[in-house]
Amino acid sequence: MRCTVWAACAAAVALYAFHIPAEAQQDFSKVEVTTMDAGHGFYVLQGSGGNITIAPTAEGVLMIDAQFAPLHDRLKAAIDKVSGGKPIRYLINTHFHGDHTDGNDRFAKEGTVIVSQENLRKRLAGGAVNAQGAPVPARDPAALASITYADTMTIRVGDKTAELIHMPPSHTDGDTYVYFRAENVLVSGDIFSTSRFPNIDVRNGGSIDGMIAADNRLLTLVNDDTQIVPGHGPLARKADLVAFRDMLVAARERVAKLVAEGKSEDETVAAKPLADIEEQRAKNPLTVARDQFTRLVYRSLKART
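RE: above sequence
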């Protein structure tokens, strides 16, 4: 085997935004896993939570994100179908939220190596807080990455080479985007989403300014032919990323105006500054609601001062 590494819905919203245990929030028996062919030898699995990217090769599978533990068997069956039953060599986490990492331990116990940015591992190890600022319990050690990196890392499995790059604090303080340069495929994690509004995890290092800066950085990387796998929602292209960045900029400007006028958080939400944007964005139940997003932008801007 050639496989080398170099270090260089309403309920679902609660799961990833507020880190509530998955099993307490959703009936996973009703979730169907679907597989999309992303081209270039990549597949995207959708079930409940964030998108999963699969890169099958003759020497094993490279997997990005894991959704929820109760979906493991259905996810594994879908992966086996597109990979011919090849082993999953590496599982890369784009950030620590449960809708992307809850299934980590199930795959790790089957021999998959978990890879993450250093801050992400620290969050899963007991360094995260919920929306109220209370500590989130540490995950099972099996769910924690056995390989971590600080700024960049390259992982090669078979004919696929994944470049892992840590973003400065944006969605969280441990965000990774994964770029397959040869195939021009970008996996963004929740730095970018084609669903309605994103979560900005202000209590765990996220900020509206950081999200905008991160998307601007992604825009220097992609071109019109880049296949983008967002954290949530359908496959995307550069124009979708531009629209998302522009939406974030508009939201920041509108909420900042109300903050400058001395409006409270509740008054800002009541003003509905993002009502027209809500109608323009894709309606996806696995996304933050307008009023919650307004609160997150408000809190992010207030945290500047």
